[in-house]
Amino acid sequence: MEILQQTLLKALANPSAISLEDQELLKKASAEFPYFQLAHTLVAKAKHDQQAPDAYESLGLAAIHAPDRRHLRKVFYEDVHIQWQPAGWKEENTWCRY
């Protein structure tokens, strides 16, 4: 499960750089957890970027699982990157102290 978490964080940070190995891991996760919409979306995005022959089929599967297809479109056609920080992370020079 730790490998899946790392793969997801890496893919969310840069969806255009999903490797074939990451795709396989995400496919396994989506097979194990069929309602895991993020895995379907990331696999479809990777196949679209790599112009895979089954990219259209993967996009259709991702669209079925997407609660809002406008967001799916943004992932595909806009430069979407998610900034994240590990839980409990505190920046030294921040205006808000915890």
Short synopsis of the structure:
With 98 residues, the chain is mainly alpha-helical.
Key phrases:
about 100 residues, mainly alpha, about 60% helix
How would you characterize this protein structure?
By secondary structure, the chain is an all-alpha fold. 59% of the residues lie in helices and 0% in strands. It starts with a helix and ends in a 21-residue tail after the last helix.
SSE arrangement:
Elements: H1 2-13, H2 20-32, H3 37-49, H4 55-65, H5 69-77
**Average pLDDT, to the nearest integer?**
82
The total count of helices amounts to: 5
Distance between the termini: 30 Å
| Unreliable segments of 5+ consecutive residues | none
* Shape category: globular
Query: Helix share of residues?
Result: 55-70%
What is the element string, with H for helices and E for strands? HHHHH
Give the amount of beta strand, in percent: under 5%
Structural class: mainly alpha
Total strands: the figure is: 0
Sheet bearing the most strands, described? none
